[in-house]
TrEMBL record:
Keyword Phosphoprotein on entry: no
GO cellular component, one term: membrane
Gene3D superfamilies documented for this protein: Porin
Keyword Signal: yes
Phylogenetic placement of the source organism: Bacteria, Pseudomonadati, Pseudomonadota, Gammaproteobacteria, Pseudomonadales
Gene: nicP_5
GO molecular function, one term: porin activity
InterPro entries: OM_porin_bac, Porin_dom_sf
UniProt entry keywords in alphabetical sequence: Signal, Transport
Protein name per UniProt: Porin-like protein NicP
Length: 455
């Protein structure tokens, strides 16, 4: 039995003995989240299927307990996930047929896992349990986690959310300082029922060449210098793949009738262990002359985003630079993941080797004109100076490639009445690129969601 599994069993046993204690029940709450999700992706140019399309209904049941009384309080959280297929587009679910019985990973489509022939399953589900303990303002969690930190971000961009397995400790015992540390061993993809080992783009190809790790450690903190100024430092290491340092600074500044928010970020990423010398562990980037066109992690990423909000309007712009031989690295099993980037958009992330990206944003909150709950926004990004390698045997360098994406979002959440919390959102994205052997895309998502408090 793994250490984390044993620790979870012991913690759950202690909780079971005290489940009737005051606080555990009284402070508990449960919610049922419903999400009806439709996605249609139009793959333009090139060869292969032109359309990926799926539609499903998701159920997200969560129980969050209070803590038992005493110096050390114990509790338990649970998350039950169920996805039901409504339509898989007549075989256009985007799944890859399994070529080997021993190949790792879930060969899923856009939303659902798939069978060996590529057909979407009728439904999929999972249950996650988290044991927790608390002393003063310090909390320990073991089991299912959904961290949202600069070096590890849970993805929630499909029917059901991604989850991780591991342990995390968080403390707020020092005024204005939040410290976090943890270790992750497994990840469950957003279109999967099973936990898989961790990997990195370039090494996560399905089949015999798959390379993985069962150890991602992270730690860092947020310090509120003033009520409007927060500084961050975080560190993450995926064993045998990469090490990453993050520095961040956010500031809110009242200017005239509005508020200017600035968000500055810096990542320094380098190789770790096997990634430094074994080609099977290499990642994507610009590795001129390498037979496989891949190499060790080597990336520095700088970004700044500035947003000014006034009278319901939000105007903004930003710039990002990705330096080094490799693309920006993040936890990526190849089944959909998120990175803590101001350029992580609906389709692309704009963090390839050498890439320079500028962006412009506008959003409006219609509550200012008497329609609370209605919002709309548009984002445009243009990335240039991308460095890659060609498909020829010597993998010669190709520079100066570009890409752009335009995303539109319109959303409405009923603010009050019997249908309070019922939401509808439409997300439209258009991505174009001149990258070799890459297909441009158009994509639409329609999401109907509802959150029902149970107790």
């Amino acid at each position: 039995m793994k250490k984390s599994t044993l620790a979870l069993a012991v913690a759950l046993g202690a909780i079971a003995q005290q489940a009737g204690a005051a606080g555990f029940i009284e402070d508990s709450k449960a919610t049922l989240g419903l999400r009806n999700f439709y996605i249609n992706t139009d793959n333009r140019d090139g060869t292969g299927p032109n359309k990926n399309e799926e539609w499903g209904q998701g159920f997200d049941l969560r129980f969050i307990s209070g803590y038992t009384q005493g110096t050390v309080g114990f509790g338990v959280d649970a998350i039950g996930l169920l996805g039901v297929r409504l339509d898989s587009g007549g075989g256009t679910n985007g799944a890859t047929k399994r070529t080997s019985a021993t190949a790792p990973g879930s060969y899923g489509g856009t939303i659902f896992p798939s069978e060996s022939n590529g057909k979407a399953v009728n439904d999929f589900s999972s249950l996650g349990l988290t044991a927790k303990a608390k002393i003063s303002q310090t909390e320990l969690k073991l089991g299912t986690l959904q961290p949202k930190l600069p070096v590890i971000v849970t993805n929630d961009g499909r029917l059901l959310p991604q989850t991780f397995q591991g342990g995390q400790i968080t403390t707020n015992d020092i005024k204005d300082l939040t410290l976090v540390g943890g270790q992750i061993e497994k990840a469950k993809g957003r279109n999967s029922s099973s936990n898989e080992s961790l990997s990195l783009a370039g090494a996560n190809s399905r089949g015999a060449n798959w390379r993985d790790s069962n150890k991602f450690i992270y730690g860092g903190g947020d310090y509120k210098i003033t009520k409007d100024l927060t500084a961050q430092y975080y560190y993450g290491k995926l064993e045998d793949f990469y090490k990453q340092h993050f520095l961040g600074l956010t500031h809110n500044w009242s200017i005239g009738p509005g508020v200017l928010k600035s968000d500055l970020r810096y990542f320094n990423s380098s190789d770790d262990g096997a990634n430094g010398h074994e080609s099977a562990y290499y990642t994507n980037g610009n590795y001129n002359g390498f037979n496989n066109g891949k190499g060790k992690v080597d990336n520095n990423l700088y970004s700044g985003l500035f947003l000014y909000t006034v009278a319901g309007h939000t105007f903004g712009g930003g710039y990002q630079v990705s330096n080094g031989s490799s693309d920006f690295p993040w936890l990526n099993q190849g089944d959909g993941s998120s990175a803590y980037l101001t350029t992580d958009m609906q389709i692309q992330k704009f963090a390839r080797a050498g890439e320079r990206t500028w962006q412009a944003r506008y959003a409006y909150d219609f509550a200012k004109v008497g329609v609370p709950g209605l919002t709309a926004g548009v984002v445009y990004l243009k990335g240039t100076d991308i460095d890659t390698v060609g498909a020829n045997p010597r993998r010669l360098e190709i520079t100066g490639q570009s890409e752009w994406e335009r995303d539109i979002t319109v959303a409405y959440v009923i603010p009050e009445g019997p249908l309070k919390n019922l939401g509808v959102a439409w997300k439209n994205a258009m991505w174009r690129t001149d990258l070799a052997n890459t297909r441009s895309q158009d994509e639409n998502r329609l999401i109907v969601s509802y959150s029902l408090p149970l107790f």
